[in-house]
Amino acid sequence: MGFVGDTVESIRSMQIRQVLTQIISLGMIVTSALIIWKGLIVVTGSESPVVVVLSGSMEPGFKRGDILFLHMSKDPIRTGEIVVFNVDGREIPIVHRVIKVHERQDTKEVDILTKGDNNFGDDRLLYAHGQLWLQQHHIMGRAVGYLPYVGWVTIIMTEKPFIKYLLIGALGLLVITSKE
């Protein structure tokens, strides 16, 4: 009876070790992703180095679901650049083109007016109440590259949360049931 008891205990110990190894591996993957994200923030100078285009306002240049890579440089913003900006009171950033830059001589600051390429008018209706221009602190970054359609994964998971939970559950199940 001692041999069987030792074997059962040994199997149980191996299973516990395997589960702990899987949890640690999952933790390392999540930690690695966070380190990469923070590294991108430092390298690009943008609080959000990657964004997804959520509407058709920039078509035909950028379509809904395209991923934009952002960079924030010290160079002055110029007319024609694609920028991502936050508006006071809005949670989701906006991707549009700079159509006018007004440099104030007294403070050396710039006022920026934007517009979606596919929109009829400028973005003043999107800005905070009473705001006519964006300032530098509204700008999150400038588009320096993009990947078409890859952002649809994010859009689908945002618009249909059950798919996100299903995917997370499937990944968790995969981690738990994997042998290594």
From TrEMBL:
A GO term from the CC aspect: signal peptidase complex
Enzyme Commission identifier(s): 3.4.21.89
Key words, A-Z: Hydrolase, Membrane, Protease, Signal-anchor, Transmembrane, Transmembrane helix
GO biological-process terms attached to the record: signal peptide processing
Domain of life: Eukaryota
Pfam families (alphabetical): Peptidase_S24
Enzyme class: hydrolase
Peptidase S24/S26A/S26B/S26C domain residues: 40-111
GO molecular function, one term: serine-type endopeptidase activity
Subcellular localization: Endoplasmic reticulum membrane
Transmembrane stretches, start-end: 19-37
Classification via CDD domains: S26_SPase_I
Membrane topology: Single-pass type II membrane protein
Main localization (coarse): endoplasmic reticulum
Catalyses which reaction(s): Cleavage of hydrophobic, N-terminal signal or leader sequences from secreted and periplasmic proteins
PANTHER family per UniProt: SIGNAL PEPTIDASE COMPLEX CATALYTIC SUBUNIT SEC11
Similarity annotation: Belongs to the peptidase S26B family.
Reported function: Catalytic component of the signal peptidase complex (SPC) which catalyzes the cleavage of N-terminal signal sequences from nascent proteins as they are translocated into the lumen of the endoplasmic reticulum. Specifically cleaves N-terminal signal peptides that contain a hydrophobic alpha-helix (h-region) shorter than 18-20 amino acids.
Protein name: Signal peptidase complex catalytic subunit SEC11
Naturally occurring in which organism (per UniProt): Setaria italica (Foxtail millet)
